[in-house]
Amino acid sequence: MKPFILITAGDPLGIGPEIAVKALKSAAVRRACRPFVAGDTAALKRAGWTPSLCPLLPVDARGLDFTKPRPTAAGGEASLKAVLLAAKLLESGFFDALVTAPVSKEAWALAGAPAPAHTDLFRLLEKREPLMLFSRGRVNAALVTEHAPLKDLSSLLTKELVKEKALLFASALKALGLKSPHISLCALNPHSGDGGVIGKEEIKTLLPALRDLKKAGLKIDGPLPSDSAWAAHLAGKSDGLLCLYHDQALAPLKIAPGKGPAVHWTWGLSFIRTSPTHGTAFDIAWKNKADPSGMTAAIIFAAGLASRRKKI
What we know:
Number of strands: 11
CATH topology of the largest domain: Isopropylmalate Dehydrogenase
CATH class of the largest domain: Alpha Beta
Radius of gyration: 20 Å
CATH superfamily of the largest domain: Isopropylmalate Dehydrogenase
Mean pLDDT: 95
Structural class: alpha/beta
Order of helices and strands: EHHEHEHEHHEEHHEHEHEHEEH
Number of helices: 12
Shape: globular
CATH architecture of the largest domain: 3-Layer(aba) Sandwich
Strand order of the largest sheet: 3-2-1-4-11-10-5-6-9-7-8
Largest sheet: 11 strands, mixed
């Protein structure tokens, strides 16, 4: 039986409705799952949704001006309510996975959202620490910290946080079918701190975390300088990179050789969640220019995870 996938259409003034509808028209998506979409009715109809594509769970906004795509309180409220509805529906067990189109952090702030974005909201709702990951073919990268200022990294990185994220990463890689995944941990400082000359985070935080993880049976090495870690991973010498901050993962990932777009997914929640790796792109919204390949990949990836989970 095909997995039931719930798709939230994102900010109604961004490209979310367009990429959702385009993805729903993909034969590959329809082969992989039975989709449902939650979002603003007017936006989805404007993007080409019809009842023949999939069932619609309406979460409508008021006073949208599609001629002026931008962050608005109305758009933020509608996209937030769609995600909150999705979280409740996932609890029921009817849906097998959630795929989220991009939302605007600015619009959510204007709408008074309790969290700045999806992962933060799910952390709040589920009262658990999830893992943010990105996959593209054989490339897998996960984050210890997410949208954190670089100046705060030293204080945010703790031994316990690194250990928690590493264990979640190993579990996520096993969900992809890797029985005994090999993880490489990236260093924070250039040259892994050069023995403490450039920085002491490797000595005080990362190495103690690695020792504990190895004692627990995890196959993990590091801390490796980012360039060396990425080169080795792209050469197939590790199954995943545990990166310490956002751009340490995303910058190389997006320019790494390989077919197809990267998929963003969240692991450690009570449900499977994936999304494309791009944003709302208000600058091209409602111009029929949005590329749906990231959304299509996210839906198919979610369906694959859900199918594998059902077989366990």
